UniProtKB/TrEMBL annotation:
InterPro entries in the cross-refs: HEPN_dom
Domain HEPN, first and last residues per copy: 12-129
Organism: Longibacter salinarum
Record-given protein name: HEPN domain-containing protein
Length: 133
């Protein structure tokens, strides 16, 4: 599998790119797409730290809660909560975007804005962990 060859820096670069894309899509009104990419940004940042620490390929999973457990350590409560919420928001949102939001269209942006901001907080915290290890 190609992902097994990715280095920690490869995972990290993909995470940063996905986060930037999520922010761009959010600003352009593509809420569900932004949230799906925010989820991927967090997932890939966790895979970067797992690869960095172990030297081995990270697990093939999209489950952020599982990845958080594998990363281990003391997670700030607000970030653990954000990860739990982001765990429900993945690529499947794009199949039926209104199913998650369950609100009128104007509310989509606000929900997505919070999800993308949470993703940025998690990615920045992981960056700090990578830099201090």
């Amino acid at each position: 599998m190609p992902h097994r060859r990715l280095s920690s820096s490869d995972w990290w670069e993909q995470s940063r790119r996905d986060l930037r894309a999520a922010e761009h899509l959010l600003n352009e009104g593509f809420s569900a797409h932004a949230v799906a990419l925010a989820h991927l940004a967090v997932e890939k940042s966790m895979k970067a730290i797992l690869r960095d620490r172990s030297g081995e390929a990270p697990p093939v999973t999209h489950n952020l809660s599982e990845l958080m457990v594998r990363v281990g350590g003391e997670w700030p409560a607000d970030l653990a909560r954000a990860i739990d919420e982001l765990s429900r928001l993945d690529i499947t949102l794009l199949y039926e975007p209104d199913a998650f939001f369950r609100r009128r269209l104007p509310d989509h942006f606000e929900n997505a804005r919070h999800a993308v901001a949470d993703a940025r907080s998690v990615v920045e915290w992981i960056q700090h962990q990578l830099e201090s290890s």
